[in-house]
Each structure stands twice: as C-alpha cells, then as structure tokens.
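Lecture 7 notes: from sequence to structure.

We start with a single chain of 174 residues. Read the sequence below before looking at the structure.
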Amino acid sequence: MAKYAALLRGITPANPNMKNEKLRFLFEKLGFSNVQTVISSGNVLFESKSKNIKKLEAMIEKALPKLGFKSTTIIKSKEQLQQLIDKNPFKGMEDTTKSRLNVTFLKNEPKTSLKFPHHGKGCTILGIYEDAACSSIDLTGTKTPDLMLFLEKQFGKEITTRTWKTVNRIIGKM
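Now the structure, written as tokens:
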C-alpha cells in the first residue's frame, strides 16, 4: 500500500462540513485505509493500492461536493514529501513569529518567468523544487494574503500552501 497526503485547498475549520471527522469519514467511504488528518487545514493522510495520483485526486475532488464544498486536491506520496524535506530548501532559515517559511504545492506544471530567488514585497520565492514553490515571508512588512495573491498570479489557482512546519508534521505522521 502506498502512503499519501491529500492537501486540500481552502479548508477552513470554522466550516462544519470541513471538519477533520467528516473528511476522514469521506476518505474511508472512498475505500482508503489508515486515514488520519494533520491539524485542521485539509491535510488528509491515507493509504491506497493505487499508484495513479491523478486518478486519486480526481476521485477525491468528485467526492468533496458531498460535504457541500469544492476543493483543489493535490496528492503527494510519502516519498515525494521526503525528497522535499531532504532537499532542505530553507537551510539556515527560521520560521518565527516575524517570518514564515511556506511550501506552495502546484497541481500543474509551473509556467512562470520568475528568476529565483525572486525578491518581492516582503517575500522571497526561493525556487521551485519539483512541483513545490518554496517561499519566505517577512510578516513585519507584508501579510500572508498578499503572498497568496502573488502566488496565484504566478501559478494559477490550482495550488495550496502549507507552512514548512506543517510539511514536517505531515511527514512525521506518515
């Protein structure tokens, strides 16, 4: 069985249909095993016999409206996430109350003219590693929504962002 993390875009814990219990139940109904969630922001871990990630993403996206919402789903295997961790794109950088290290997972092949590292207003896009854009944001000079808007303009709306701490939590539970 392959181990996966489904990273769902736009999950807000305040919405009762997006609660972890309901997400786990839906994934179990889809036939996945060892379903777990990591924090309340749309990180669902599961195991499947299927190796076809695109098919798994489509299956989950088709099922989510049963909970009353749509969400882009990006699936990463345990091996893919471990490769990103091993690359350590944030070497020497810290995630603090004044700065945040983020990983934006891209569903589609990145088409951008940015040169890396790209320094923007209060943020730096360090680079793209496979299909994940790694960035740091200075929270004293800009806000996370500003970074999210910039990332959407560069990579489209089929993306989802997690903090580096969350990515490490996900791999730790896998």
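The mean pLDDT is 94. Keep this in mind for problem set 3.
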